[in-house]
Amino acid sequence: MVKDTLDSDAHLRLTCRKKGTDGKQLELKKIELGPFGYVVADISCLNKLIDLRLIVLTEVYLKLTELREEIKECIEGIVKSACIEESAKGGLHWPLGDSARNSFKVVTSMHYNVTTIVAESWNVKFQRANRAEFETSSGRVTNEVNVKLKKITKHLRDQRPWEEDKIMNILEDILKWFWTEL
């Protein structure tokens, strides 16, 4: 996550992948503005020893060509100077002074190992997330499950009116699957 220090609301999530034969360099894959969360609900499932967090959010993807040249150079410079180091918190580190360019600075680094299950109406990602939060000098490794509900996403993109019963049925179906499989 990169923050613009001149605009406290501007957070860019840079998604990169390993590049090169040695796998020690990063290549910028996509840039997201936000994400913007609309609903957050924490659910404790005591009999399952699982806590769930339901988040409804939107993401705005930006193209490098849409950015001003100086912003593009800053972002590319931050990505190019990153060093992949699996043992470091967040899986990445930057040489001293290279985690910031002009008004942009790295505030969070995340490295994921992901396994994805694809179904007709949803995707499930099982991921081991290694995070480093530079502003608080903290880090953590977590096991996470992210579910993308394709039918609900399509429903929202098509800007159809909310059909609460249908959406609740989709959510109930996915939760039933989790209860039986996990």
UniProtKB/TrEMBL annotation:
Superkingdom assignment: Eukaryota
Annotated DUF7903 domain residues: 11-180
Xref: InterPro entries: DUF7903
Name of this chain's protein: DUF7903 domain-containing protein
Organism: Taxus chinensis
